[in-house]
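Final report, Chapter 2: Outcomes

The project's central promise was a pipeline that accepts a single protein chain and returns its three-dimensional structure in a standardized token representation, suitable for archiving and comparison. That pipeline is now operational. To close this chapter, we reproduce one record exactly as it appears in the project archive, with the input sequence first and the structure output second.
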Amino acid sequence: MPISPTFAPSQPWHSPADPARRRTLQRAAWSAAAVAVPALVQASWAQGAQRLQPTPRQTEGPFYPVALPADSDADLLRNGSLRHYAEGQPVWVEGRVTDTQGAPLAGGVVEIWQCDAAGHYHHPGDGGRAAEAFQGFGRVTLGHDGRYRFRTIRPAPYSGRTPHIHFKVRLAQRELLTTQMYVTGDPGNARDFLWSRLSEADRAALTVPFTASSDGPRAEFALVVQT
């Protein structure tokens, strides 16, 4: 009868039932879990934190330009070669446009339009009574950081409406958002038929203060769009 060769392992073998061996395996498992679980939680939190609520939509209103003006740059205080518009309070309106993941909307376009200090628009429906020196409409193309900046006047009230600035965001041929920006603390807000219907969360998203800066009052108005 053949005799089986003897197996001689190079390292001593331990039974899983060996207490020392079992404790070593347990410590290794606990160490791995201690590293993996926080990493998974942190990754999950980061992913959730990036999801932003889209900016509430609002009506376009009746005074969007019938045809875009020849001068439609970011400075609404000068209309073409006309003199500088001197009515109202000059301000900066600026912000960042992102998608719901927090990524900047590079290449997108932001448009704004508003009435002049006397409450008139450059629009046939308003009799075309806006001051000629006030551009009334502006548009900018967003860079890699998604930021925009306009030079304009602090929004003024007109019949039936609290002060506001209209905003529109486009990407290529798509219109992603139309909304309005309101001013924190303005006494006309509560009487405005659009602002008064907003939820508390939507009011917070659309209502911003003007704060002092080195080059004049400014409002920071962030926009979040669904792409």
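Archive annotation: Residues 16-49 form one domain.
This record, like all others produced under the grant, will remain available to the consortium after the project formally closes.
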